Amino acid sequence: MDFVGTWKVYSEENLEEFLKAVEAPEMILKMRKDFKPTVVIEHNGDEFIYTLKTPVFNKVHSFKLGKETEIITVDGRKYKCTVREENGKLIAQTDKFASVREIQGDEMVEMTLTLRSYTKI
Q1: Residue 34 Cα to chain centre, angstroms
Q2: pLDDT tens digit string along 25-38?
Q3: How many helices (H) and strands (E) does the chain have?
Q4: How do strand 47-53 and strand 107-114 relate by DSSP bridges?
Q5: Which of the ends of the chain has fewer CB neighbours closer than 10 A, N or C?
Q6: Domains and CATH numbers, the chain
Q7: What is the pTM of this model?
Q8: What is the rounded distance in angstroms from the CA atom of residue 43 to the CA atom of residue 40?
Protein backbone atom coordinates (compact mmCIF):
# COMPACT_ATOMS: atom_id res chain seq x y z
CA MET A 1 0.00 0.00 0.00
CA ASP A 2 1.46 3.29 -1.06
CA PHE A 3 -1.10 5.68 0.42
CA VAL A 4 1.45 7.49 2.59
CA GLY A 5 2.01 11.06 1.47
CA THR A 6 0.34 14.40 0.91
CA TRP A 7 -2.56 14.46 -1.54
CA LYS A 8 -4.38 17.52 -2.91
CA VAL A 9 -8.01 17.08 -3.95
CA TYR A 10 -8.44 18.51 -7.43
CA SER A 11 -11.73 16.95 -8.53
CA GLU A 12 -14.93 15.92 -6.75
CA GLU A 13 -18.19 14.60 -8.13
CA ASN A 14 -21.54 14.53 -6.30
CA LEU A 15 -20.00 16.00 -3.15
CA GLU A 16 -23.11 17.96 -2.20
CA GLU A 17 -25.34 14.90 -2.54
CA PHE A 18 -22.98 12.86 -0.37
CA LEU A 19 -22.77 15.55 2.34
CA LYS A 20 -26.57 15.81 2.41
CA ALA A 21 -26.89 12.01 2.63
CA VAL A 22 -24.65 11.91 5.72
CA GLU A 23 -26.60 14.85 7.17
CA ALA A 24 -23.73 17.34 7.16
CA PRO A 25 -24.84 20.79 8.32
CA GLU A 26 -25.40 23.60 5.83
CA MET A 27 -22.20 25.32 7.02
CA ILE A 28 -20.13 22.33 5.87
CA LEU A 29 -21.95 22.20 2.52
CA LYS A 30 -21.14 25.84 1.83
CA MET A 31 -17.55 25.61 3.03
CA ARG A 32 -16.70 22.47 1.03
CA LYS A 33 -17.93 24.11 -2.18
CA ASP A 34 -15.21 26.75 -1.75
CA PHE A 35 -12.26 24.62 -0.58
CA LYS A 36 -10.46 21.61 -1.96
CA PRO A 37 -8.77 19.94 1.00
CA THR A 38 -5.31 18.47 1.30
CA VAL A 39 -5.07 14.98 2.79
CA VAL A 40 -1.96 13.76 4.59
CA ILE A 41 -1.66 10.04 5.29
CA GLU A 42 1.07 8.81 7.61
CA HIS A 43 1.86 5.24 8.66
CA ASN A 44 3.70 4.52 11.91
CA GLY A 45 3.92 0.84 12.87
CA ASP A 46 0.37 -0.49 12.79
CA GLU A 47 -1.23 2.95 13.13
CA PHE A 48 -2.32 5.24 10.30
CA ILE A 49 -2.83 8.97 10.80
CA TYR A 50 -5.19 10.70 8.38
CA THR A 51 -5.17 14.51 8.40
CA LEU A 52 -7.66 16.60 6.42
CA LYS A 53 -6.44 20.18 5.92
CA THR A 54 -8.43 23.19 4.72
CA PRO A 55 -7.90 26.94 5.18
CA VAL A 56 -10.63 26.87 7.85
CA PHE A 57 -9.81 23.72 9.87
CA ASN A 58 -7.59 20.68 10.20
CA LYS A 59 -9.04 17.35 11.29
CA VAL A 60 -6.92 14.39 12.39
CA HIS A 61 -8.06 10.77 12.70
CA SER A 62 -5.94 7.78 13.58
CA PHE A 63 -6.80 4.15 12.97
CA LYS A 64 -5.44 0.63 12.87
CA LEU A 65 -6.46 -1.71 10.10
CA GLY A 66 -9.32 -3.98 11.12
CA LYS A 67 -9.95 -2.20 14.42
CA GLU A 68 -13.04 -0.10 15.10
CA THR A 69 -12.27 3.51 15.90
CA GLU A 70 -14.35 6.62 16.52
CA ILE A 71 -14.16 9.50 14.09
CA ILE A 72 -15.52 12.91 14.98
CA THR A 73 -16.64 15.23 12.21
CA VAL A 74 -15.89 18.95 12.12
CA ASP A 75 -19.33 19.69 13.55
CA GLY A 76 -18.95 17.13 16.36
CA ARG A 77 -20.91 14.16 15.01
CA LYS A 78 -19.39 10.81 15.95
CA TYR A 79 -19.14 7.71 13.79
CA LYS A 80 -17.76 4.27 14.51
CA CYS A 81 -15.46 3.36 11.65
CA THR A 82 -13.42 0.33 10.66
CA VAL A 83 -10.75 0.58 7.98
CA ARG A 84 -9.45 -2.49 6.22
CA GLU A 85 -7.07 -3.21 3.36
CA GLU A 86 -8.40 -5.35 0.55
CA ASN A 87 -6.70 -5.96 -2.81
CA GLY A 88 -4.52 -2.86 -2.39
CA LYS A 89 -7.48 -0.64 -1.47
CA LEU A 90 -8.23 1.12 1.82
CA ILE A 91 -11.89 0.61 2.70
CA ALA A 92 -13.44 2.64 5.53
CA GLN A 93 -16.87 1.50 6.71
CA THR A 94 -19.35 3.31 8.96
CA ASP A 95 -23.07 2.80 9.44
CA LYS A 96 -23.75 5.77 7.09
CA PHE A 97 -21.18 5.36 4.32
CA ALA A 98 -18.25 3.42 2.93
CA SER A 99 -15.16 4.96 1.40
CA VAL A 100 -12.86 3.06 -0.96
CA ARG A 101 -9.44 4.55 -1.75
CA GLU A 102 -7.01 3.17 -4.26
CA ILE A 103 -3.88 4.29 -6.04
CA GLN A 104 -4.23 4.65 -9.81
CA GLY A 105 -0.92 5.70 -11.33
CA ASP A 106 0.14 8.88 -9.54
CA GLU A 107 -3.34 9.57 -8.14
CA MET A 108 -5.31 8.45 -5.11
CA VAL A 109 -8.91 7.90 -6.12
CA GLU A 110 -11.68 7.74 -3.55
CA MET A 111 -15.18 6.48 -4.14
CA THR A 112 -17.64 7.14 -1.34
CA LEU A 113 -20.93 5.32 -1.13
CA THR A 114 -23.87 6.14 1.07
CA LEU A 115 -25.42 3.07 2.59
CA ARG A 116 -29.10 2.35 2.17
CA SER A 117 -31.26 -0.40 3.54
CA TYR A 118 -34.13 -1.87 1.59
CA THR A 119 -37.11 -3.91 2.65
CA LYS A 120 -38.93 -6.25 0.33
CA ILE A 121 -42.47 -5.15 -0.48
Answers
A1: 18
A2: 888 878 777 888 89
A3: 2, 9
A4: unpaired
A5: C
A6: 5-114 (2.40.128.20)
A7: 0.81
A8: 10
